[in-house]
Amino acid sequence: MRQINDARRGHKxxxxxxxxxxxxxxxxxxxxxxxxxxxxxxxxxxxNIKTPCAIGKGLRTKINANIGTSxxxxxxxxxxxxxxxxxxxxxxxxxxxxxxNDFKAVLKSIIKKSPMPVGTVPLxxxxxxxxxxxxxxAKTSVDxxxxxxxxxxxxxxxxxxxxxxxxxxxxxxxxxxxxxxxIVSRGGALMxxxxxxxxxxxxLYENFDRVLSIAKEYDIALSLGDGLRPGSVCDATDKPQIxxxxxxxxxxxxxxxxGVQVMIExxxxxPINQIEKNIKLQKKLCNNAPFYVLGPLVTxxxxxxxxxxxxxxxxxxxxxxxxxLCYVTPAEHLSIPTLEDVKEGLIAxxxxxxxADIAKGIKDAKGWxxxxxxxxxxxxxxxxxxxxxxxxxxxxxxxxFKTETKDICSMCGEYCPLKISEKI
Amino acid sequence: MRQINDARRGHKxxxxxxxxxxxxxxxxxxxxxxxxxxxxxxxxxxxNIKTPCAIGKGLRTKINANIGTSxxxxxxxxxxxxxxxxxxxxxxxxxxxxxxNDFKAVLKSIIKKSPMPVGTVPLxxxxxxxxxxxxxxAKTSVDxxxxxxxxxxxxxxxxxxxxxxxxxxxxxxxxxxxxxxxIVSRGGALMxxxxxxxxxxxxLYENFDRVLSIAKEYDIALSLGDGLRPGSVCDATDKPQIxxxxxxxxxxxxxxxxGVQVMIExxxxxPINQIEKNIKLQKKLCNNAPFYVLGPLVTxxxxxxxxxxxxxxxxxxxxxxxxxLCYVTPAEHLSIPTLEDVKEGLIAxxxxxxxADIAKGIKDAKGWxxxxxxxxxxxxxxxxxxxxxxxxxxxxxxxxFKTETKDICSMCGEYCPLKISEKI
Lengths: 424, 424
What we know:
The first copy, chain A, is α/β, with parallel strands linked by helices.
């Protein structure tokens, strides 16, 4: 891989050193993971990332926050505020999924300001450009698609979602098999529409080598999108989903052979009892490439709370081996997220990632819990709150009701078990 | 069991019939579960419960909401408002944990108004009564304790948490073993204090037959409290916890022999990877008595969000076989919950229980998801929102931003994958 070759030549040694230090592992461990394809470092060679991250086996579970405008809401200033929230609440990466007319300005600003890796779905740019010309995505040419990929690579994007697995065969299976929720991926739906209109194979699949060349040139990590991820727990782990995953596994192998970093995107909506199977299957079919999951949501019934329905699935997925969790906000299925939604989504996902790290035995993960618990047990409220994930919220709740003495809270008062048992 | 004997005599046949209908199982299935001790129906014979519930193997996972005053906050009117929220958001049971001076009035009002089973921890009444007399819990007599149990039984309480497992042996183990977070159960801490002060064995343990007599008389279900549940993921599944669980298993057997309905309370704070083991151990040691878990929280670091840290654990616990989930609110570890906190806790736990039911294959559990997903896929917003868990919140989020046509939302706009793929 280019990153490895660079490392050998000393160019990227610094980046590897930094991520190794952040993880508390050796550079050798990172280099081995890069070689095996079990670790990626999304970092466009044009960018100087302040807080880079490595994603993959043996490392802390990472979280991504999707930000960006929609045709109906958002602008540069709003998205930069979302980015500030991502920094404040410790996202590891952000994806700019903008689809407004000023998408170029938004992406440029986010890349300029973001201290962390930035990802995109280049197809969205293709769709917005087509709209600008009063055309539609289905009428775009293969060159239009690669124009956007190339442009975003030059802009400095660190990782791309590429929907190359939605092939004619897979769509045939979907038609035959049927589903409750059809296609719920924007990139997947756009691609399926293009293929139907043009009666042609998926252009990203057919021209995958062209994708690889650009990715290699800029050292962009590819994230192979799951255009047919299930959008209902009733559709989970069905034939179209697995057929696409098999194709992604083959494409991942080709990427690896070409020296391009690659990870695989995964569902979606999956019942708790199918999560382990989904992770094991991805690892097996994709040669242990890092797995980047969206949730999964463990039930479909709670729009407004999908940060919770999906954090349940994400924590389990992380425990079973998913490496990278794409957050879901309370606005999922209903609206574009607000600043507050971004925060809520991020907190839910930090909880998911951290609880997964404790469970899978990531070194020192439990240390944070120990610290918080020691302060809690001694009712050292100031430190307890300061050490917690969201000190502002914890403090606001704690201060709501006054108590006679400061070493108890308004829940138990003098019947505080910690205070009582301390004296025993 | 009394409930069985009653059923045989036709007295409680109606109650069994009603819970069977609610669950979509036969009365025979419920009766068999009651006989085996794998199902309980908390229902004081003095009460006429409008929405009774059965808890246990093969049934929907149930959720309990803790309400009640603290020494610093709450009163009859406030607690009845909390009860209204419990009804609105479908709690299966409530526990009144009041510790204010007007605890009697609160309990009476809750029992009178609650359409669902009501539980308590009678020790709290003992503690408040002692305080009223300017005394302390440690100075109360065994008769004082049984006075409260008898009084609450006559008041109509449907299930009691009884901390009979905190024995001298177990406390010795705790002292020897050490812990980050000591004793985090109020009942457990009060009992340990009493035992130390009086240099005597746990009076609920020593007089367990007396507890059983009262429970049998009123057909109150016992919930054997885990006074030594871990309060930090660092303490999970430690020797004191397991030693107490073994005692609870023996007490459960005694209850069953006497014809008293019994369930077992469980942790607490448990890392994801230890949850399955905890459930299996309880089932084994307690002869498959229903397991009533508090969460468990899968990390200690997020006070302010413990409805989420614990809903993750609760959904997994439910999947592995826990029967009854005690909710946790965002105020946990910080303050007494407000009305809004009660709602947030309940929603998180309905998500946990429902996702567990899908995963463990409870009949028709997925039907709700199918309905919501069908409406979602057809962008029938009105029905989608109406069928969801919290229509008010879903609608508020959906309406935030306007779109040109009504069949899309402000997230994807015209790039709505469902709309695009519908046309394919």
